[in-house]
Amino acid sequence: MNKIILIARQEFKNRVQKRSFLIATILIPLLFPALMGIMIYMALQQERNATKEVVHYLDESGLFKPENDRYIFKSFTGSLEDAKRAISHDNSFGLLYIPRLDVYNPKGVVLYTKVNPGPNDIGALRSLLEDQLKETKMRQLRLDQGLLDSLSTHVNISTVTLTETGQEQVSDSNVRFAIGMLFGLLMYLFIFIYGAQIMQGIIEEKTNKVVEVIVSAVRPFQLMMGKILGLASVGLLQFLIWIILISTLSGLVFILFGIEMPQQQMAREMTVQSGAVNPELAKIIEVWNQIPLGYMIANFVFYFLGGYLIYGALFAAVGSAVDSPSEAQQFMFPITIPMLISYFSLFIFILQDPHGPISVWLSVIPFTSPIAMMGRVAFGVPGWQLALSMVLLIGGFVLTTWVAARIYRVGILMHGAKVSYKVLARWFLMKN
Amino acid sequence: MEAIIASNVSKHYTNHTALNRISFTIPDKSIFGLLGPNGAGKTTLIRIINQIITPDEGAITVFGEPLNPDHTGVIGYLPEERGLYKKMKVGDQLVYLARLKGLSKKDATEKSKAWIKKFGITDWWNKKVEDLSKGMAQKVQFISTVMHEPRLIILDEPFSGFDPINAQLITREILALRDRGCTIIFSTHRMETVEDLCDHILLLNNAEKILEGPKKRIKDQFRASTYIVQHLGSFEFNDEQYTLVSRQGLGDNSYLSTIKVSREESPNQLLHHLIAVTEVHSFVEKIPTMSDIFIKLVGGGDHE
C-alpha cells in the first residue's frame, strides 16, 4: 500500500510539474468563454458584412413585393424557360418562380438555384412570401393589424416543483439542461483525456524499458494502481482549479453586468430590487441558486473517480499490451463505444427526458453511468437510483481493475509480441 | 549459509516449458555465472528470483528463508531490458527507485548522493536522463541497482552498451561489492566475463540444467588431457596412446604441437617421451576455456 502511494505521488509530481498541465489548467477556463465570444462575434460580423445575394424573380401572380434586406431582388419578365437559361450564366443566387396562384391555397412556388440552398435561405424566402400573402388576405378581408394583434394570445406557464418537504421551487428546465450538458461533456472529456494519458504513460514506461526495474521492487498491480491513482489526483486538482477559476470569472461577469454574485444571498437581494432587474434574468438566477452546486460537484467528483477508474484500468491494460500508441488504436475502439453511446445519449435521451426508462438505465449501468448521471443530476435523481448506480459503479471498477491487472502484469514484460484479443485472453488466464 | 537454494523449479507456458525441474545452489559471497544460449530460460529464472513471476512448482530460499516479498529490498536487479524515466532528473530518479526498494527518503537521498560522488558525476544530479549519453545513463542505472545495498545483486548482460573504460569501472565495483559480502549473479553470453569473474557456474539449455558447480571443478572435468608443446625439431609418434592434433611451424625448425593423450597418464610421462625425440622449449596443459565448454555442451542445439 505504501508503495502504491509512493508511485502515485511520483506520478502526480511528474504530471503537475509539466508545463502542459499548467497551460491546460489555466488557459482552458479562459479559452472556452473567449472562443465562444469570438465565434459569436464572427457570426454577427458575417451576417452584417455578408454581400447580398442576387435573386431573380419571375412573378406571374403580381402579388410579390421585392422588399427584403437579405437579398437583392431583380424582376425578370419572360418565360420560365428563358429565366432559367438566363440565371445559369450569371452569378446570381437563383430564381424564384411564383406562378399565378390562389392566396388561400398557394401552390407551385419554386426556387431554382445553382447550389443546394441552406435552410436559412429557404426559410427567409418562405416567410417573406407568407407575410406578403397574409397581408393580401388581410386587405381582402378588411382586417387591420391591431385587431390581429389583439387576437394572438401568449400564455406563459411557470413551473413549480414540489419538493419532498413540501417546499415550492421555481424550476426552469433550460437552466438544468445547460448545466446537465456542461457536466456531462466535462465528464466525457475528463475520462477520455485522463484515460488516454494513463495509456500513454504505460506505453512510455514499456518502451523506456524502465518497467522491469520497477516491477522487481513492486508488484505490477501496485505499479498500475499507483499510476492510475496518481493521475486521478491530477485530474481532481485540475477540476478544482477550473471550478475556482470559472466561478471567479463568472462572478466578474455578473459584476460587469451589474448584478451581485449569485452565491451572495441572491434571493433576498432579488425581492428588494426585483423591479430593477430583468425578470427573465432574475428567474434564471433563482433557478441557478436552487441547483445545489455542492451536491453536483460532489457527484461529479464521485463519478469522475468511478468512471475514470473503470476506463483508466482498461486503458492501462491496452497500454501494457502494445509497444506503440498506433498499435493501441485497434483496442481503443471497443473501449470508446460505451463512451460514445453515453455521449450521444446525453443529447438524444437524457437531457430531453431525464426520467425516462432509457435515461434511468444508462445512468445505472457502470460503463455509461458517469456521463449519463451527470446529465440527470441537475434535474434531480431519486435517492435509490443514485445509490444503485454508485454501488454498480464501484463494482464495475473493481471488476475492470481486476481484469486489467491480469493483462497488465503479463503485457508489460512482453516486447514485440503480436497482440490480438486471443492473446489478451490467454494473458488474462495465465497463472502468474 | 547459501545465498540461494533452488529445488525443482519449473515454469511452463501454454506452448513451451521455460524451466524444467531446475535445482542449484548459489554459495554466499560468490560471483555466480548463469549461462546459456538465448531462450534457455535464464531470464525466466531471474524473474522468478525477483518475484516478477512465480514458478509453477519448486521452491527457492534466499539466505535461508523461503522467497517472500521482503526480499525485493535484499535484491538488486539490473535487467537486460533496462531503462530510466527520460524526463526525470538523475537525482530524483535515484531517490525514487531507492524508495521503491524500501529506503526512507533521507537514506535514499544520502546514499544516492554518496554514489554520485563516488562515480565522479556530482554535476549530473539535476540533469534529465534524456540529456545523458547512453554510457552515462548506464552508470546511473548501475547505481540504482546497488545503492540500496542489496546482499544479492543480479546483473543480466551488465556490460552491453558499456565502453571498455566504464566496463572496467563497473567490474571494479562488482569485485568490491563481492569483497564487502555481496553475492552476485551474472547472466551473460560473454564467456570472457565468466572466465575473469565467476567462481560458480550454472549452464542452462532448452529449459534444462546442463552443468553446475565451481568453475575450477568444471574446468578440471573438461580437461581433455591435451598439451601444447613448443619444440625444436620435428618428430612423429609411433605410440597409439599419443595423437598429434595439430602442428604449426614457427620457423627455424621450431614447432608448436598440440598433443592429445588417450590414456590416463601423468604429464611427466609424456614429457619423458618427448625429451627422447625432440628438444622441448615449453610444455603447457591445454585448459579448456568456458567458451570451449559452452560450445561443446550447447553447440549441437539450434540457437542464435
Widest β-sheet, arrangement of strands of chain A = 2-1-3-4
Overall, the morphology of chain A is elongated
Proportion of residues in extended strands of chain A: 5-15%
DSSP helix fraction of chain B: 25-40%
Give the tally of β-strands of chain B: 14
Mean pLDDT of chain A, rounded to whole units?
A: 81
Number of individual domains of chain B: 2
Tally of contiguous helical segments of chain A = 16
Oligomerization state of this entry? Answer: heterodimer
Radius of gyration of chain A: 30 Å
Portion of residues in beta strands of chain B equals: 25-35%
User: Would you count the extended β strands of chain A for me?
Assistant: 6
Mean pLDDT of chain B: 87
**Protein chain pair with the most extensive contact, residues per chain:** A-B, 24 and 32 residues
Radius of gyration of chain B: 24 Å
Rounded to the nearest angstrom, the distance between the terminal CA atoms of chain A is: 20 Å
The CATH homology group name of the largest domain in chain B? P-loop containing nucleotide triphosphate hydrolases
What does this structure look like?
The complex is a heterodimer of chains A (432) and B (304). Chain A contains 16 helices and six strands. Chain A starts with a helix and ends with a helix. Chain A is an alpha/beta fold and 432 residues long. A four-stranded mixed beta sheet of chain A has the order 2-1-3-4, covered by helices on one side. In chain A, strands 5-6 form a two-stranded antiparallel ribbon. Chain A has helices spanning 2-16, 19-49, 80-87, 119-141, 145-151, 173-208, 211-215, 220-256, 266-273, 279-290, 293-321, 325-350, 357-362, 369-377, 383-411, 421-429; strands at 53-59, 71-75, 94-98, 110-113, 159-162, 168-171. The model of chain A is unreliable at 259-276 (pLDDT under 50). Chain B is elongated, with a radius of gyration of 24 Å. The longest helix of chain B is centred in the middle third of the chain and has 16 residues, at 164-179. The two termini of chain B are 37 Å apart. Chain B folds into two domains: 2-220, P-loop containing nucleotide triphosphate hydrolases (Rossmann fold, 3-Layer(aba) Sandwich), CATH 3.40.50; 224-286, Alpha-Beta Plaits (2-Layer Sandwich), CATH 3.30.70. Chain A binds chain B through residues 3, 6-7, 10, 14, 205, 208-210, 212-220, 413, 415, 426, 430-432, and chain B through 13-14, 47, 50-54, 56, 69, 72-73, 75, 77-79, 81-88, 96-97, 99-102, 141, 144.
